[in-house]
Structures are given as structure tokens and as C-alpha cells.
Design brief:
The protein has 8 helices and 4 strands. The protein is of the alpha+beta class. A 4-stranded mixed β-sheet has the order 2-1-3-4, with helices on one face. The N and C termini lie far apart (37 Å).
């Protein structure tokens, strides 16, 4: 049985986890928080070279990085497919997924330490984050109307990217920008509500909530985060 190493509070961990759940693949979860080093699981570096989550343990060895893990899952367990049938549509799903990761999640992630620590961000960083998110909000409708799924008429990797990365933008917006910027994207609020009704997504949210006390205790022990 394959094993997924990481922790349920991590959206990066939940990307392959949701793919596994959607495909109804049997797997084992192995709890491992970040913070690899002399004080915490240095052996994890043999699974993920930079000590990041997730890592997928297979009979052949370990795979790190969510994108690579998704590729392995899709090729090893092709049904039900999480990619469309044609090369063009596959590329468009990957384009949308990468757009969400690069121009929403990674931009908003700069303020995650402030969210976790209850501190105010540096004004210059906040300005750059707001500018980046505003640009992405204006551009996103060119890639998706979110009429049924994120792309086309089937659940794909683009939906996984949206479901697991966009909530971070909402949290950051409400906490530091005085608004939810994603509500400005036509169709996105209704789409998000539909996705939250999927049983697999409910499982992801419940597991993340259950893990949060342990994750916060880990941050406090490792880094002094309150």
C-alpha cells in the first residue's frame, strides 16, 4: 500500500491526498510535520530532500513535490481520470492549476506567518501581496468561468488546485485586505460552495480541522509560535 507522509493542515499535502480520495485509492497516512532538522525527524530528508511535505512512499521508493506525486498517481491509477482526454485540454487544466498556485497561493502565502502568529504584516509586503492578488483576480476569468467545474465538464486537477489553494487567499484577504478578493471573480463563490459539498472535500476539511491543534503545538515547540 502506498503511504502519504505529511500533515492534514497543509494544503500541499492535501493536493495528492484529495487526488487519492477522488480516485478511491487505498493509502496510509503517515504524520510528519515540517521543521526537519536535528531536533525533529532528520531521517525525513531521505524521503523529501528539502524536508518538505508531502512525500509519497511507493514500492519503488519515495517521491516528493505535489506536482510529481500527482503525475505518478494519474499514470499509475488512470481511472477515474483527473485530466481531460485531449492534449490541448490537458494543457489548459495544467495552465489553470499553475496559475492558481503561482499567482494566488504563493503570493498570499507571504502573509501566512502573520496569520499564524497573529501579527501585522510589513506594509511593503502587504502592498505587494494586494497588488499581486488584484492582478490575478482580474486575469482569472480569462481562464475559467467556474460554471460547473474549474475547467470543462469533469472534476480535474484544476479543481484540486482551486479547492485547496484559493481558501488561503480568502483568509488573507479578510484578515489583512478588508475584503474577500475572490468574491470579485464571476461564478467563483457558487463554484466553491458546490465543491465544498463533495464528500472527499468534506473529509479533507474535517481532517485538517482535527490536525490543527497538533500542528499549532508543533509550531510552538519548534519555533515559539503562539
Amino acid at each position: 500500500m502506498i503511504k502519504l507522509h505529511g500533515f492534514a493542515s497543509s494544503n500541499y499535502y492535501n493536493v495528492p491526498k484529495l487526488a487519492l480520495l477522488e480516485k478511491n485509492i487505498e493509502f496510509e497516512e503517515v504524520l510528519s510535520y515540517t521543521g526537519v532538522g536535528p531536533k525533529y525527524k532528520p531521517e525525513y530528508l531521505d524521503k523529501s530532500p528539502l524536508g518538505k511535505v508531502p512525500a509519497l512512499e511507493t514500492d519503488e521508493g519515495f517521491i516528493s513535490e505535489s506536482r510529481a506525486i500527482l503525475e505518478y498517481i494519474e499514470r499509475t491509477y488512470p481511472e477515474p481520470a483527473l485530466l481531460p482526454a485531449t492534449p490541448y485540454d490537458i494543457a489548459k487544466v495544467q495552465e489553470l492549476s499553475q496559475f492558481i498556485e503561482l499567482y494566488f497561493e504563493l503570493v498570499a502565502r507571504q502573509l501566512i506567518p502573520n496569520l499564524l502568529g497573529g501579527t501585522q504584516p510589513d506594509p511593503a509586503v502587504l502592498k505587494n501581496v494586494e497588488s499581486g492578488i488584484n492582478k490575478a483576480v482580474a486575469a482569472l476569468p480569462k481562464l475559467s468561468g467556474f460554471e460547473q467545474f474549474a475547467y470543462g465538464d469533469q472534476f480535474t486537477l484544476a479543481d484540486i488546485a482551486a479547492i485547496l489553494n484559493l481558501p488561503i487567499v480568502r483568509h488573507v484577504g479578510k484578515a489583512f485586505l478588508g475584503r474577500d478578493p475572490l468574491s470579485e471573480v464571476p461564478g467563483l463563490d457558487a463554484y466553491s460552495k458546490r465543491m465544498e459539498e463533495r464528500p472527499q472535500v468534506k473529509r479533507i476539511r474535517a481532517d485538517a480541522a482535527a490536525d490543527r491543534p497538533g500542528f499549532m503545538a508543533h509550531l510552538k515547540a519548534m519555533y515559539g509560535v503562539k
